Amino acid sequence: MRLAVGAIVKNEAPYLLEWISWHRAIGVTHFFIADNDSIDETTEILRALQKARLVRRIAFPGRLHKIPQFDAYDHILQRAAGRFDWVALIDADEFIAPATDEDDLPATLAGLPADVGAVALNWAIFGSSGLRAASGEPVFQRFLHRATQDIDESRMAYGNRLYKSIIRTAAYGGGILNPHHPRIAKGFRYARMSGADLPLREPGISADVDWRGFRLNHYMIKSWAEFVLKKQGRGRADQPHRTRSFDYFYRHDFNDEQDGMPARFIRRFEEERALLLRVKGVGEATERAVAQTVAFSPPPYQPPEIIEGEDDLPIPRKQPSKLRRKIRFARLRATATMARVFGLDV
């Protein structure tokens, strides 16, 4: 059974090594990664891993695609057809999480009925765990607090009922309805990982939340510093002209219950990460990217008493805002500091 992951990324250099290592640890054998105009070390890391035949980097400039995420997913599924049995379409802040040490992703997919064309993995939304600053520790080991399974949807529409998909390549019907739900061909159906029919409210939103077997841990905000650095001033993959507001952080900072990954897969992750670090250029580029992120100093954290704003804001097309200028200058300062401390040529 051949299982791949497909994703579109932009400036994810501090996290790529961890994200790829984790998914290799749970049974993913290949990665199709669309590089969407990255200006950090993302391209360098992906090229090094591609040279080692561990990933396939796809140059995906945003200027050529109205909705880059949709086009990237379609391109990946067409490219994977006939070479891979299943492709999981997820983001770099999403981690497929087995429920227990005994859960086996490739074996579960291989055992599904032949008419299952895609399976849905419900989100498990993780908050900041109260962390304001970034660090170099793995994301899934830093952020250990998440929302309850049934989120209060007055705070976040649909909550964990949102899902992402693992698609049987032979069942792809052509076309991405939305980032959560590709179209599947007639004669196939959407299902849970158990093989049972997916109770659907609408494409991308299930009628309930099912975490049995597997789910998708979504580290959507990380720390305050990482949110400001990574989410502000860049467009969304599905809406390139819009960015995340500060209210998005406050609204999605769920820390209701503590939860972690199964120990067996953490051990395998550590083995996979050590293996990837031996690939020439990967460790050095990752270290630089992490150092820049850790050095970033964000604006003060000032949560409002009442969250009333919009989750998304349009990206200014002319003069950048004072906040965006501050972020840009802070990035430059962080880079200069890193160069002095580590003696690096940046």
Rounded mean pLDDT score: 89
CATH fold naming:
Spore Coat Polysaccharide Biosynthesis Protein SpsA, Chain A
Q: Give helix % range.
A: 25-40%
- Write down the CATH class: Alpha Beta
| Outline type | globular
Q: Unreliable runs, pLDDT <50, ≥5 residues?
A: 315-320, 341-346
Order of helices and strands: EHEHEHEEHEHEEEEEEEEHEHEHHEH
Beta-sheet strand percentage? 15-25%
Give an overview in words.
This protein has a single domain (3-293), classed as Spore Coat Polysaccharide Biosynthesis Protein SpsA, Chain A (Alpha-Beta Complex), CATH 3.90.550. Strands 1, 2, 3, 4, 5, 6, 8, 11 and 14 form a 9-stranded mixed sheet that branches. The protein contains 10 helices and 17 strands. The model is unreliable at 315-320 and 341-346 (pLDDT under 50). It is globular and about 55 Å long. Helix 9 packs across helix 10. It has helices at residues 13-25, 42-51, 68-80, 105-110, 139-142, 224-231, 246-251, 263-277, 282-295, 322-342, and strands at residues 3-9, 30-35, 56-59, 86-89, 94-98, 116-125, 145-146, 163-168, 172-178, 181-184, 189-191, 200-202, 205-206, 214-218, 242-244, 257-258, 312-314. A hairpin with a 2-residue loop joins strand 12 and strand 13. The longest helix has 21 residues, at 322-342.
